[in-house]
């Protein structure tokens, strides 16, 4: 039923230290159609790192890898590896404003180097058949005119053959603001992104920044091809249970939070047997019952017990018992 929708119609943003593979597996229990993104992974980590930075579970599909880097050859190498591993999309980070990222010459500072971004996208597109997309801002520092944004998009689209852009509707200050402040202080300018889609109607464009409800997402979808939700989807993951029905026209019944928790048990047991700590999984589940009686007890029990030595699925069962008996009326309301 979803084939006529853009893959970008609704997605959960890549968020460093948050959208790891445990988070994505959990989110996939809540929504079948939402496109999920990895945290940003640098080309250096993939090529030279000790761990497996491309690990994910098959159940996570559709899943996109977000890369950080600015060396076309290294990006092409990583894109090829990611396609071999079965990722559904490669995304280049041209939006993150942190100092650490700038020092590596990637993230938002690349907005000032449109030709290099185009080279990076082209190098990846030449070696993979899966989509290669760009996540960017509407400007950086004093380079925040609409003309600057249009020049960037047209250069990357024409020279890089990029046809899909996810645009965070704020500019980024490359110095003077922390990454957190860069998500809050520069004002949102949705109208500018809407205008961009009107001026580049042949490109697929999704919007990111400040989206807190599915009603807001519906509003953006009147103007654009897709919506990316970040913090709200993480802190209040229950919102994802409504996405398939409201945004993708799915006729499947909405899953309830109790069955979602129980659906996590086999995954939790599998991960514990591989040496994963319970808290690394349950930290992503804390907000599931937000707004439902018993939510505080659920959060507290997991927060206080999931990190203890030997903590296993029984900790989650005990936490669920604190909220489940209060649920039927609240869930069906």
Can you describe this structure?
The chain has 333 residues and is α/β, with parallel strands linked by helices. It folds into 2 domains: 10-248, Alpha-Beta Barrel (TIM Barrel); 257-325, Four Helix Bundle (Hemerythrin (Met), subunit A) (Up-down Bundle). It contains 16 helices and 8 strands. The chain has helices at residues 21-30, 43-48, 72-85, 99-103, 114-125, 146-159, 179-182, 190-199, 214-221, 231-235, 243-248, 257-273, 278-282, 295-305, 313-324, 327-332; strands spanning 10-12, 35-42, 63-68, 89-94, 132-136, 164-168, 204-208, 226-229. Strands 1-2-3-4-5-6-7-8 form an 8-stranded parallel β-barrel, surrounded by 5 helices. Helix 1 packs antiparallel against helix 12, helix 3 (72-85) runs parallel beside helix 5 (114-125) and helix 14 packs antiparallel against helix 15. It is globular, with a radius of gyration of 20 Å. Mean pLDDT is 93; it is low at 329-333.
Report the sheet-strand fraction.
5-15%
Helix content: 40-55%
Cα(first) to Cα(last) distance is 27 Å
SSE arrangement, N to C: EHEHEHEHHEHEHHEHEHHHHHHH
* CATH architecture grouping of the largest domain: Alpha-Beta Barrel
Let me know the average pLDDT: 93
Q: Say how many strands there are.
A: 8
Short summary:
This protein has helices at 21-30, 43-48, 72-85, 99-103, 114-125, 146-159, 179-182, 190-199, 214-221, 231-235, 243-248, 257-273, 278-282, 295-305, 313-324, 327-332; strands spanning 10-12, 35-42, 63-68, 89-94, 132-136, 164-168, 204-208, 226-229. By secondary structure, it is an alpha/beta fold. The chain folds into two domains: 10-248, TIM Barrel (Alpha-Beta Barrel); 257-325, Up-down Bundle (Four Helix Bundle (Hemerythrin (Met), subunit A)).
């Amino acid at each position: 039923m979803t084939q006529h929708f853009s893959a970008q119609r609704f997605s959960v943003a890549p968020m460093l230290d948050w959208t790891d593979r445990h988070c994505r597996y959990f989110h996939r229990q809540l929504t079948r159609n939402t496109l999920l993104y990895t945290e940003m992974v640098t080309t250096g980590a993939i090529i030279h790192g000790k761990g497996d930075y491309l690990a994910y579970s098959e159940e996570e599909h559709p899943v996109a890898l977000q890369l950080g880097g600015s060396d076309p050859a290294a990006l092409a190498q990583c894109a090829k590896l990611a396609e071999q591993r079965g990722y559904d999309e490669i995304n280049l980070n041209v939006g993150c404003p942190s100092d650490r990222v700038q020092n590596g010459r990637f993230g938002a500072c690349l907005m000032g180097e449109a030709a290099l971004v185009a080279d990076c996208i082209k190098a990846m597109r030449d070696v993979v058949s899966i989509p290669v997309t760009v996540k960017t801002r509407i400007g950086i520092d004093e380079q925040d005119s609409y003309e600057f944004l249009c020049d960037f998009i047209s250069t990357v689209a024409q020279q890089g053959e990029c046809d899909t852009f996810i645009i965070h509707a704020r500019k980024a200050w490359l110095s003077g603001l922390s990454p957190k402040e860069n998500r809050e202080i520069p004002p949102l300018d949705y109208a500018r992104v809407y205008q961009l889609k009107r001026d580049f109607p042949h490109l697929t464009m999704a919007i990111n920044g400040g989206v807190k409800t599915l009603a807001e997402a519906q509003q953006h979808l009147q103007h654009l091809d897709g919506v990316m939700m970040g913090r709200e989807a993480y802190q209040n993951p229950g919102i994802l249970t409504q996405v398939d029905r409201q945004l993708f026209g799915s006729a499947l019944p909405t899953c309830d939070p109790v069955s979602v928790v129980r659906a996590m048990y086999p995954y939790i047991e599998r991960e514990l047997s591989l040496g994963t700590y319970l808290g690394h999984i349950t930290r992503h589940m804390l907000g599931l019952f937000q707004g439902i009686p018993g939510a505080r007890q659920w959060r507290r029990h997991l927060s206080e017990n999931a990190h203890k030595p030997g903590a296993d699925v029984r900790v989650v069962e005990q936490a669920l018992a604190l909220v489940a008996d209060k649920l039927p009326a609240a869930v069906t309301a």
